[in-house]
Amino acid sequence: MRVICCALLLLQVTAVAAAKRTTPTPTAELLDRARARYDTMDFDEILPLVNEVLAREEVAAEHQVEAYRLQAIALAVMNRTVEAEAAFRLLLRVSPDYELPEGSSPMVSALFSKVQLEERAIRDRIEQHERAKLVAEMAIEGAPPEEVEGGSPVQIEFAVRDPRRAVESVQLRYRRKGDPDYSALALSIDERGLWTGIIPAETTENEEGLVLEFFVETLDQGNIPLVTSGDAEDPRLLQVAPGFMSPNWYESWIFWTIAAGAVAAAATTVGIVVSTEQSSVEPTARFGGVQVGLPAGQ
Q1: Would the pTM count as exceeding 0.90?
Q2: d(CA 139, CA 134)
Q3: pLDDT at 109 over 80
Q4: Which of 124, 212, 216, 272 could serve as 158's disulfide partner, Cβ 3.0–4.6 Å?
């Protein structure tokens, strides 16, 4: 019986020892050891510790960043510059906005800055390429009528078919030709999914005829233009015949505004459609209440 008990005790001790041998050192402890080697300038002893951290699966991002930092510094001090740059590059892929701690050596800081600039340039090129692809999928189609009557509002409405849902807002900018500045009209989306707005009749009333210059911008969440129809330097044009507002018309316009379109058929309408090739909807415009098919590619 005594022999059996001793054998069982020996097995338990062996199992505990084996468990201790196979339990991996915590990642935080490995990094603490690596930092201690950094403090004592034993740079060659840093690499095995951080390499073990980086070889593990599902390492927290902050641990990866610290491991790459220590790895890059150790390699730089050991004159393994190319490998040090690669470590800093991987660090910045994990944390693009990372900055070295204050007090880092000039040599290490210079190497990091070089890689940082290169990585920013790479990210900028990727972002520009992706944005160009996004904008290339969009096209503005449609044309205004040749002429509208002065003293009447110009109702704008168009659909934005946006497969990537990049458009956050839409603006119409307009001015009388010869005026120095554009007015901005933020368009709103209605229950039909169309972006709509009205150039007020005060803008169009005139005695001898005039030209309205305008352009349309679709904007992303950062308020950066995506696809546009015309621009400030090369706006689209709308001829306006002589004409003035009448008191009766003004009252009907107020009623139309309150009634949300009850007398919209009396207003000149310009329809512009923003579309992609994926859309099967035919662009149209309504001029003076008449719906007209619009040519593509305008």
Answers
A1: no
A2: 11
A3: yes
A4: 272
- Tokens representing 74 are 């150790």
Residue 222's alpha-carbon distances to 58, 80, 225, in angstroms, are: 33, 41, 9
Cα 63-66-71 angle, rounded to 5 deg:
120
* CB distance 115 to 93 below 8 Å: no
Question: Cα–chain-centroid distance for residue 297?
Answer: 26
Please report, for residues 42, 90, 137, 138, the alpha-carbon distance to residue 278 in angstroms, rounded to integers and kept in the order given. Answer: 61, 39, 9, 10
> Domain segments of the chain: what residues?
2-135, 139-293
| Identical fold between 2-135 and 139-293 | no
Residue 149, pLDDT above cutoff 70: yes
The segment with the largest mean pLDDT, out of 64-68, 193-197, 224-228, is 64-68
Q: pLDDT digit string (tens) for 239-272?
A: 999 999 876 655 555 555 545 554 444 445 555 5
Dihedral angle of Cα 204, 210, 213, 216, to the nearest 10 degrees: 30
Distance CA 239, CA 150 (A): 9
Question: Which CATH entry fits the domain spanning 2-135: 1.20.1260, 1.25.10, 1.10.10, 1.25.40?
Answer: 1.25.40
Under 8 Å CB-to-CB from 176, ≥6 apart: which residues?
Answer: 203, 210, 211, 212, 213
